[in-house]
């Protein structure tokens, strides 16, 4: 089970929080702070697992996180989840964001928290992994957006809504830092990048994630 | 209206949307809180508007604010409003907000039930999807109960998108509403084989979550998962399954054996690291579960360790971390294989990543040996010095102590070294583990007698330098060490070089700054020291020195008497009075030292940690009972707080104590000793340790190495443990040399038993003899300690409620079928009216009035559910069966024996499932055992007739089983038992024979009755529930004929695959003392029905019964009849001829019988789903007639059971005293039956296929209670002449 999913930036500002068990708002903020404290002091070149924080979960729980450019994606999971699997899942999630937002950056998450939630809902449901095939996720998100668009178009033809933009574009500020590529990272096509993306599988492209044959 | 919309749109244009809000917050960095509060006010205004778009926008903004930590629960009702919008756009916003801020105590949740139900049944899959997603986050027990059935229906939705969501959410429903698990489980299991990989994955996910908490209930799914594992290509699914197997193997070692090979293959073949890692993990779990009896898995261990080494050597920190993690699991059972990688693990200690270092530390624990302990600890001490951050340093500290103290200091050869390590550790600043070091010091000093001299010297030094530690008075800080130091110095003060100096150190004014419990120990032990000092001084010098010491005590102790700490205060004042008294005696020149020392005589031994807990409560002692009646409440309010009360009491008791004179004390001590001796509850020193103490008052017999006094023992702040490493090396060399010499001298002599205690160490280390030994190993326990450990399970764990036995549900329903009470709540029963469209506009107000409308669609879903379940069931079973044959191959000689029977009879798969269902439980056993099961071969041997002597034209007769008591156990649930009879009997027989030899086969017995399959149980379970009255035993077999030699009972079943065949099973029971042989069965054929005979034989030849009957034995044979018309009942005359053979004579005998084919004999129990049933009724193809039956006095459920059982019907639906039933003839005619009770008489309303007419024929009015009374005859409506017989 995934206990919670937190996305916050390098300063600990929450960009998306999703708890699969109930915590009061103050507690949620405390958990974010604690998690940020734990995660932020770690170098980028250390492992991505942390024994759980004191506030959320028990000894069974782990924090599994990835750091992309300005954002931390932290999943708190229990022992029924595979560590490497969750790392891959984060990657799938981020790549899905990248597809849906066309070169996602922190600003997209800031201004479209709701959309990010909708995407996340297609990946994880109630703390369990729902779908790992990126194409499937993107397809479902697209279909829902189309539906939204048609509804808005019928009801309020005169109004231009950001909501109905198919690929949500960032509305505020310059597109500064792309998420999928970390700043210190080499360009996407370089071998090192490839290695990072396919860390836990060797030859085939993301086989673990897509449910394709091993 | 239009105007309103336009107005709303214009409103909307001026509203802030989410982006505006975010931008606003970003622009008001200084006064964010203020800005947000104005925004919240705006939102409140927006929520008051009627326009749903405005509301949705407001709710969306609230969701954002919730993320920032604002409580938005006040808007819960508005969120519900937005959720119930008919527009997907808004609905989605509403559900998102709800999922973020609703929880179990949100009261508006109960308003959402109908809305959610509506959304779940929406024709738009995304409405459904969004509702499922939302619900997964805020489902409550009430919602779970009300919606479980709707969600279950969705599990069979046409869209995989919905199916997978519905499957996943079931887990949440189970958690909140555990009662739903049993009814929903069959379908969940079915989803494991869903064609869509996403749904499959979801089902695996849910079952894995369930199984993780209560693995034993899911053990029977192992074969299915095994199949998935070997066939699936989805790594996500594989990982989950493999993890699940990891949880299952500890429960079933045979499963582990089976897993090893495929897992090893996966390890070799996979390229996905995540999968590889999980495989290795599970193999480790398997190896752990097998660790006892399986020596030849060293190859697997080696493979795992190798693969892990590759992971650890990887540059990727994540892999390194996981590799170490898995390695530590191997370590527990196979330490040797890990020890060879010590280099790698030590290397990891230097890793920059703290998580990795911690993991490596965990591993070190198991890698130490006598040889390398000092070296490893030395390395760790270096790390302690280098470590930044107290957490890691504390971790190091605890690890060092863990490593050294493990299994009773097994690896420590030199305790002086260990004490100095502990002393070095006290120099750590800011550690939280002072108490840990302290307890180690105490433990070592108490247990290792030889080390006491050394330990006391070290502790005295520590006490002298106490000021270095008192800086940190934080609880559990390093000053805790002083607690140990003071106690050791006091308790073993006879070993002190300069007790006077230590005494002074303990009475320094600075001590008063220490925590209370430490001061108390100081005071107490100062008294012990005082006694020792007195003894020394009285012997040596004139009285003045002793008196000076007393004076010192009298001067210093008042400081402690003033302590705020009660304990300190009490002890100090006791001792002060005592010393004053001693001083008086000293002034009179009385020698008191001996007496004072006697105060502290006796050995203190370690007490087991749980000793107190394990003292059983004496009989008759009620700890909860009041000793004195509690004061009335009004009084207690006026009373003083307890603490004060307690304090006063202790003060009162003080003077009493001190007034007692020395003689009185001695006398009391005597009395107490005697009391203790006779008191069974007093914890006495264990005989063994006492013995050690008495026999070895000195330490001479313990080999002690000469302490090299050049080691600077007394300089704190200098590392000294290092010296010991060198010393130890020398010592060992010397030892080795000595030993060699010895061995040369006395080769034949056995090596001294000195090292034997440590045999558990690695072999190579036997040479290393420890310098000191642990003298006291056992800890003291109360004499009648309870052996059991406490159950540590958390009673609040929600998963506890899910510990539900699913096996009998899955495997066979009979034992505990789903009762009506277990069915998921459905609101109505009958689809009386045409369905209303569930898609209605979604105003919140309309939600409340939804209930009645939902009825019908609800029901439809329910029907569909049944259908699906049925379909799946039979599919499942077919697979199972196939699987079983594949898997077991030659193991299943028994089943092979009846396999040809099945084929020759052309018994359909549809008829067969219940039988294979019965076999399911044994399947697991079979599946798990690779070797042929002895009982099976035995069974095959006992059935030579079945295999070797098939009668060519009566293939049905090839299963001659003995069946003496079969009829008794049958139960009404087994409506389709008949169809599976012969197979089941086989099972039964098997069971009987195996019972003694094979206990595990016992399931057969328990599950035998339940072959109806889950779907049957749901339907027929209705029969059982309301009345508790048990059903009378029923039998399919009715008496055919009987004489003094033999009794024949028969049962007739249709053959679904061949519409013109019925199979008659006849049980022959030998009633006499003679041997019956050469039995021949013959029937006079009619135009319509003919006995199938062997090829080439004439139409009047009999059939040889393929067995002989010893006295009082029964067996069964089968005969196939071909029938042309199934619409009329038949009576066939027949004869059985046989030879009765006695010892001396043999006679020919014969027995006539009449074989009666009723119309219901041609029916085959076929489950039907309510929607199919409804369609059938609607189709108009059926003709209808009804019959009233009077005088039925049996309970309704008995009646239903009878109809099911004897006439091969299955219950489609039942409400109160009305039930619809269904069956099919062997030629495929549908027969529907509606049974109603109208007051007394049972009314049968019978519908039938247009080809058929089904008529209720009442033969004897009063015989309704007898078994075969409800006799149906089928007849073609035209010509009417055929209507009656």
Number of distinct helices of chain B: 51
Order of helices and strands of chain A: EEHEEEHHHEEHHH
Integer average pLDDT of chain B: 71
Low-confidence spans of chain A:
157-176, 180-214
| Shape designation of chain B | extended
Rg calc of chain A = 17 Å
**Helical content of chain A, roughly?**
25-40%
What is the subunit organization of this protein? heterodimer
By DSSP, the count of extended strands of chain B is: 17
> The biggest beta sheet of chain B, please?
6 strands, antiparallel
Provide a count of the helices of chain A. 7
State the separation between the terminal residues of chain B, measured CA to CA. Answer: 74 Å
Which structural category fits the helices and strands of chain A? alpha+beta
The helix content of chain B, as a percent range, equals 40-55%
On the 0 to 100 scale, the average pLDDT of chain A is 74
Radius of gyration of chain B: 43 Å
Q: Main beta sheet of chain A: strand number and arrangement?
A: 5 strands, antiparallel
Descriptive notes:
The complex is a heterodimer of chains A (214) and B (1285). By secondary structure, chain A is an alpha+beta fold. Helix content of chain A is 40%, strand content 16%. Chain A has 7 helices and 7 strands, in the order ββαβββαααββααα. Chain A has helices at residues 25-40, 83-101, 106-111, 113-123, 134-155, 191-197, 207-210, and strands at 2-9, 14-19, 49-51, 62-68, 71-77, 124-125, 128-129. In chain A, strands 2-1-5-4-3 form a 5-stranded antiparallel sheet, sandwiched between helices. Chain A starts with a strand and ends with a helix. The relative contact order of chain A is 0.14. Residues 157-176 and 180-214 of chain A have low confidence and may be disordered. By secondary structure, chain B is α+β, with helices and mostly antiparallel strands. Chain B contains 51 helices and 17 strands. In chain B, the strands form 4 sheets. In chain B, strands 10, 11, 12, 13, 14 and 15 form a 6-stranded antiparallel sheet that branches. A 5-stranded antiparallel sheet of chain B has the order 1-2-3-7-5, with no helix packed on it. In chain B, helix 2 (18-27) runs antiparallel to helix 3. The longest helix of chain B has 38 residues, at 851-888. Chain B is extended. The C terminus of chain B is likely disordered. Classes of the chains: A alpha+beta (214), B alpha+beta (1285). Chains A and B meet through strand 2, helix 1, strand 3, helix 2 and helix 4 of A and helix 1, helix 2, helix 4, helix 6 and helix 8 of B.
